[in-house]
Design a protein that fits this description.
Layout: E1 4-11, H1 14-29, H2 34-55, E2 63-71, E3 74-81, H3 104-112, E4 115-119, E5 124-130
Antiparallel strand pairs: 1-2, 2-3, 3-5, 4-5
Helix pairs in contact: 1-2, 2-3
């Protein structure tokens, strides 16, 4: 099977994020087995939402870049925003939050992804997830 990728560059705007996620959902549905689709979409959705809301502060003059790649039995994703970044340690991923509070995005990344890396002060988030049963052929 050849490696494949999905790439998009959008304005830091929730409406644009929904358009991107519709396209990504369709792309995922054709390539990833049904048991793994939810986790992959959730990871991407949370990372994009964080980049727009926290990174770019919902400023549509800023851009958010998304790249999702399928390689063998692994999905890898890179989300990059034009915001100021943040400071976060892996210990923060599993902090309990309660209804109505913010802060679940990084927890979700830590729970569903096999590996999460923050680069350039958090402006770039990379994560990967192994796909049980492999990628759809």
């Amino acid at each position: 099977m050849k490696d494949e990728s999905f790439e998009s560059d959008i304005q830091a705007d929730p409406t644009e994020a929904e358009r991107l996620m519709r396209g990504l959902r369709g792309w995922i549905a054709q390539r990833i087995n049904p048991n793994e689709r939810f986790a992959v979409e959730l990871l991407c959705r949370e990372a994009v939402a964080n980049a727009i809301e926290h990174g770019s502060r919902n400023d549509p003059s800023k851009r958010v870049r998304v790249s999702v790649a399928l390689m063998g039995n692994e999905v890898s994703c890179l989300i990059e925003d034009e915001g100021g970044g943040f400071i976060c340690s892996p210990a923060d991923w599993f902090v309990q939050t309660w209804p109505g509070e913010q802060g679940r995005g990084i927890t979700i990344l830590g729970h569903y992804a096999d590996r999460v890396l923050f680069e350039e002060g958090g402006r770039i988030v990379r994560f990967s997830k192994r796909i049980r049963g492999g990628i759809e052929q």
